[in-house]
Amino acid sequence: MFMLFNKYSLCWLLLFLTISSCRKAAFDEFYGRPDWLESAIYSKLQEEGRFSMILKLIDKAGYQETLNQAGYWTFFAPNDEAVKRFLTEQGIADIEAISVEMAEKIVRNALVYNAFKTDRISDYQSNLGWVEGMAFRRRTAYYDGFRKEVVKINGVEQELVVAASNRNNMTVSFGTPYYVDGDNNNKYVTYFHSKYAALNNLTASDYTFFHPNVNWTDFNFMGSKVVKANIIAENGIIHEVDAVNLPQLSLDQYITQNDDYSFFRDSILNPYFVTYQPNAAASKTYEYRTGQTAQVYIKTYDPMLAFSPNNENYLKMEDNDGQMDAYTLFIPKNDVLIPWVRNVLLEHYKTLGNVPKTVLADFVNTLFWQSAVWPSQFAEKTNIHEEPARFQLSDISDKKILSNGFLYGTSKMQESDLFNTVYRHIVLDPAYSLMLNLLNKEYRRLIINPDKEFTVFLFSDRLLSQLGYLYDDRISSWTWRDRNGNVQGHSVAEPRLQRILYSHIVETPNNELGNIANTSGFIQAGDNSIPGEYIKWSNGKLYAAGNELLNQPVQIVGSAKFGNNGRIYYVDNLLEFSGESSGQAIQRIVSQNPELGRFRDYLINSTLYVAADLTIKGVSSGSSYTFLMPNNDAVQQAIDDGLLPANPLTADLAERVKVERFILYHMLSNVNLAPDGNREILSAITMMKDENDQSQIVGINNAPQNLRIVDKKGRSISVVNNTDLYISNRIVLHELNGYLNYNE
Fold first, then answer.
1. Quick one: which of 82, 77, 71, 78 has its CA closest to 40?
2. Same domain, yes or no, for 256 and 404?
3. Domain termination site, one of 241, 259, 282
4. Of 287, 3, 279, 231, which Cα lies nearest the Cα of 117?
5. Per the domain annotation, does 177 fall within a domain?
6. Per-residue model confidence (pLDDT) at position 19
7. What residue range is the signal peptide (predicted)?
8. Secondary structure (3-state) at 711
9. pLDDT at position 173, please?
10. Residues 463 and 434 in one domain
11. Would you say residue 440 has pLDDT above 50?
C-alpha cells in the first residue's frame, strides 16, 4: 500500500513540475527581459571595452546604481585615452588618486538629463514641442549647492553659508522670487553640433575661437570631440568623447576668482548690486542635507541688472529655455576700466558712491547681454540698451564658455550710446538731473541714436527752480508756480516741461548750429521725422515763440561740448512756447507788419473768426499750422480778379462764402513750413474743402531761402521774407507777395 501511494505521489509531482515549468516559460516569454534590449549605461560601458577608467570614477562617485537602473539619461563618456591624458595634465599619479569630489564632478558633469541622440541634440524642448536646430546646451546632474564664503557686510567681514540665487529677480512682488527652494541651480554643458551651426549661420570658427586647440567635427562637446555618437543603452544614450570635461564656473564664479576684473567686481558690481538675503527655506534644506544648523544666505543680484550672473537657469520663461540660450558678459579689464571710470563716469562726481545707482545700473547693463553672443554675432545681438557688441575679435583678450554663459574679457570699452553720445553730458552731470528725468521719460532713445546728429540745449536744475518748477521725487510729481504766482499741479507742469524740452533738442545733420554765436537763422526743433516747433537764433541768442512774445531771449553760456552724435550748449533760460491764440497771433503780426492789415480785416470780419476768445474756427491749439497771408497789394489783386469782395464787411452771403474759402485756402493744417530747403514736403493740405467735403491741396517748392507755394492754377507764389519767419503757438506765419487761387 505504501509503495503504491509513493508511486502515485511521484507521478503527481512530476506532472506539477511539468505544468509549472511550462507556465514559467510562457511568463518569461511574455514578461521577461527581451534578448534584443540593450544593457543599461553602466553595463554598456563595460561591454564597449574602452571605458574602464570612467567606470572606476563612476564607482567612486557612487553613480553605479544610478547608471545601471531604469532612467533616461545622456552620458558623455570620456574613453580611457581621454582619462589618461587628463591625469597627466592634472599631475595625478593614477585613477586611484582622484578624489571622490573630483570623481563626482567628472561624472555628474557628463550626465545630462533626458536621452538625446544626434537627431535631437540640437533641438529645443519648448513648452509647445520640439523647435528644430535651436539648442546648444543641456542641464546636467551637477550643481554647486551650499558653500562657505567670507563676505563683507556693513564693512565687517563675516563667514556665511551661501547659495546662489536661481532666478534673475530678487523681488518676489514682481512674480518671480530670487530663489526657489528645491531647484538646485544645476549647471549646463555646451556643445556644438552641425545642425545647430547650420540653422544659426555659425561656422567652425565660432567654436574654435573658444577652443583653439580642438578641431571642430560635426559634433563637439565642451572642449572635446565626440568620437562615437549614439551608443544605445536601456536607460539612455552614450556619446563617447576624447577629453575629460570638468564643470565650468558660472559667470559670477569666474569674475569672483579672476583679478583681471577686480575693479569691476569690487568697486562697482559687489558694492552696489549684490546683497546676501537670509532664507529660511534654504536653511532647512541645508540642515536636512548636512545635519548642521546654520542661517543660509542667498547671494542675489539687484533686479536693475539684466540678469543675475550666478543664476544657472537662464531666464526661466520656460522650463527648458536654458537649452537654447545663455547670458553673455563683455567685461573690460582693470587697465581699461579704471581710466574710463576716472575720465568719464566721474567727470562730475568725486566717487562712485555719488553716482546715481540708476546710472551705474545703466553702465553695468551695457556689458550684459541676455543672449549668447557667438564670435560672429557681435553686430547682431544687442544688450538691453539695444546696442550691439562694438568690438573686433582682436579686442578680446579673454574668452570662456562658462556654465551659464559666455564671457569676453575686453581690451577696450564698449562704445555705449549712453556714454558716447550727447546724452553723456546730461546723464553724468548732477546739475542736470531734472532735465535727465524728463528726457528718460520721453526722448532718451532719440538723442542716444548714434546714426543721427543733434544739438541739445541744456537747462539746469537751478534754472528750473528759478522759473518756479519743483520736482518731488518721493511721489514723482512736478509743480509749477506760474508768472501770476499760481501753483499748477503735475498734470499741467509735466506736459508743459515735456513740450519745452522738445524745443531744446534739434536734429542738425549738416551742423546747422555749429556757429550759433556769429550767425542767425531759424530751424525746426525735434527729430526731423517727428518735427517740433520752430526756434530762431541770432548771434548767440535763441528765441522760441514764447521768448519772442515776452522779449526774453535765451543766451548761450560757456563752451559747447561734444558727443559722437553732435554737441550740447548750456543756456541761461528756457525756450518757451507761446500760449497765444491764433487770432492773437495774427493781430500781433499785423501790428509789426501793417502790410498784412487787409488780410487781417477780411479774417476778423468773416464767419471764421470768434471774437470772444480771439480764435479761428477749426484751428486747434494742439495742432501745427502754417498761415500764408497775402500782403495788401496781393489782396487788392484778388479783389480785382474777383476772388474777394471789395468790402470785408459785406453782408452778401455769396461774397462771405468767397471770403471764407479764400482764407481757408491760405491756411495749411498739420504742418509748419519755413524756407529751410526741406524738399521732403511736396504738398500740404489746406483747411478749405470742396463741395464733396474733400480737403484741397497746394504744392510746395522749398529751396533754401526760397519757399514757394503752388496753387490750383499752377501759379507759384513766393514768401516775401525768406530769412526770417513769424512764429506763434505751433503756428508759422508768412507774408505772400501774391494770393493763392483755389479755382481750377
1. 71
2. yes
3. 241
4. 231
5. no
6. 56
7. 1-25
8. coil
9. 44
10. yes
11. yes
221, 241, 261: which is the final residue of a domain?
Answer: 241
Q: Which amino acid is at 577?
A: F
pLDDT tens column, 628-665: 999 999 999 999 999 999 999 999 999 999 999 999 99
Which triple of cell numbers denotes residue 282?
534654504
Kindly report the pTM of this predicted structure. Answer: 0.88
511 lies in the same domain as 607:
no
Is residue 179 assigned to a domain?
Answer: no
- pLDDT for the residue 2: 39
Q: What is the pLDDT of residues 218-275, one digit of tens each?
A: 999 999 999 999 999 999 999 999 999 999 999 999 999 999 999 999 999 999 999 9
SS3 135: coil
Beta bridge partners of 37: none
Q: Could you list the residue range(s) of the whole structural domain that residue 518 is in?
A: 421-571
Can you tell me the distance from the alpha carbon of 600 to that of 614, in angstroms, rounded to the nearest whole number?
12
Regarding whether 375 and 440 lie in a shared domain, the answer is no
- Residue 374 sits in a domain whose CATH number is 2.30.180
**Does residue 698 register a pLDDT over 80?**
yes
When pLDDT is averaged across residues 498-520 and rounded to a whole number, the result is 96
pLDDT at position 4 over 50: no
Q: Judge whether 72 lies within some domain.
A: yes
- Residue 239 contacts residue 222 (beta carbons within 8 Å): no
| Structural domains in the chain (count) | 4
My answer on whether 590 and 650 are in the same domain is: yes
Q: In whole angstroms, give the CA distance from residue 483 to residue 339.
A: 47
* 699-703 long-range contacts, CB within 8 A, separation 24+: 700/673, 702/673, 702/675, 702/676, 702/677, 702/678, 703/675, 703/677, 703/679
Taking the C-alpha atoms of residue 194 and residue 220, their distance in angstroms, rounded to an integer, is: 9
DSSP category for residue 341: I
Nearest to 176 by CA among 325, 310, 303, 357: 303
28 in a domain, yes or no?
no
* Domain shared by 127 and 215, yes or no: yes
Q: Which residues pair with 318 in a beta bridge?
A: none
CA distances from 137 to 122, 146, 189, 190, 229 (A): 8, 24, 6, 4, 17
Mind listing the pLDDT tens digit for each residue in 575-597?
A: 999 999 999 999 999 999 999 99
Stretch 10-25: mean pLDDT: 53
Residue pLDDT, tens place only, 87-96 = 999 999 999 9
Q: How far is residue 596's CA from residue 45's CA, in Å, rounded to a whole number?
A: 99
Ranges assigned E (strand) in 499-540: 505-507, 520-527, 530-538
Residue pair 577/500 in contact (Cβ under 8 Å)? The answer is yes
3-class SS at 705?
coil
User: Do 524 and 702 contact (CB within 8 A), yes or no?
Assistant: no
Sheet containing strand 469-472, strands side by side: 469-472, 477-481, 487-488
Is residue 69's pLDDT more than 60?
A: yes
Do 452 and 373 have their domain in common?
A: no
pLDDT at 523 over 90: yes
Residues 275 and 370 reside in one and the same domain: yes
Give the domain CATH number at 437: 2.30.180.10
- Asked whether 632 and 601 are in contact (CB, 8 A), the reply is no
